[in-house]
Amino acid sequence: MDIVCALRTFLRVAETGSFSAAAIDLKLTQPAVSRQVSALEAQLDTRLLHRSTTALALTAEGERMIPMALRVIEAVEALGDSAGPVGTASGKVRLSLPTPLGLYMSDRLAALLDRHPELSVELLFREEPSDLIGEGIDLEVRLGPVSDSSLICRRIGWTTAFLVASSAYLEKRGPPQTIEDLSHHDCICYRRGGDGRSWLFSNGSDQVAVRVAPRFVVNNAVAVHRAALAGAGIAILSHILAAPDICAGRLINLVPDFPPARLPINLVHSSRRNMPLRVRTVIEYLVAAMREDPFMASSSASGPNERCLAGKA
């Protein structure tokens, strides 16, 4: 039995929760996937999965096997990288990002994939932290502080966001003159962890938290963007979504002297030991992509606003 192949199959079954779904991903038949998992269980003399006609679930031993299986596969891939052609990455990388950054990277991955024909990337749009090991995620981008000390964390940029509303909304309600005025407005809240109802602003020296009473709360930034364009209220939006509309006049940048506070953009992964070339390649490309955008590359609280959207308030 090829134990590395069997471990890969087991991990895919655990990720998808289905023999048939894993078979499709691995380009195998469902019986072949089942046989590989059964052979692995026989080799280890332990049951890894509970099976029934309607459900599939990991046993306690299967849960413990996942991080060990990942370490084995990482070590084997690292050996292959060292023996293979220099600079040639292969295999799949699962990368989780907040929706705006996912859209940003979607526009930029073609060049990376052209450069590495054997590499594939699976983007997962996530608004909240994932279980990296349990879900087989290689890399995740998180906004703000990272509290899990077991993860390797690297700051790769800064968020820039704008307080915006459409002209149609402002004609009905008038623009807020200060951030304190937001309590009297219809606000669209993007809930990304927490309740989303406390908005933090910074003028470079002071930070102020403002409580709002939203009429619309959603956990997807694209939905917030569409609602703002439709005149549903005032929103805080990433520059990735808002900047083109501000420049085109579809959204108005409000209270520009006291913009939303900036957050660190952190890249996290479970281990730096035996990191495969495929993962290192995506990290390097992701970091370079962040540096290309002045809104994310600059640590200055006011620089990007003044430089890129001067006169757009």
Automatic annotation (TrEMBL):
A family per Pfam: LysR_substrate
Key word Signal present: no
GO MF entries: DNA binding
This protein's record includes keyword Methyltransferase: no
InterPro entries given in the database record: LysR-type_TF_proteobact-type, LysR_HTH_N, LysR_subst-bd, WH-like_DNA-bd_sf, WH_DNA-bd_sf
Gene3D superfamilies noted in UniProt: 3.40.190.290, Winged helix-like DNA-binding domain superfamily/Winged helix DNA-binding domain
Domain HTH lysR-type: 1-59
Keywords tagged on the record: DNA-binding, Transcription, Transcription regulation
Domain of life of the source: Bacteria
PANTHER family found in the cross-reference section: HTH-TYPE TRANSCRIPTIONAL ACTIVATOR TTDR-RELATED, HTH-TYPE TRANSCRIPTIONAL REGULATOR
Similarity annotation: Belongs to the LysR transcriptional regulatory family.
Protein name: DNA-binding transcriptional LysR family regulator
Organism: Rhizobium viscosum (Arthrobacter viscosus)
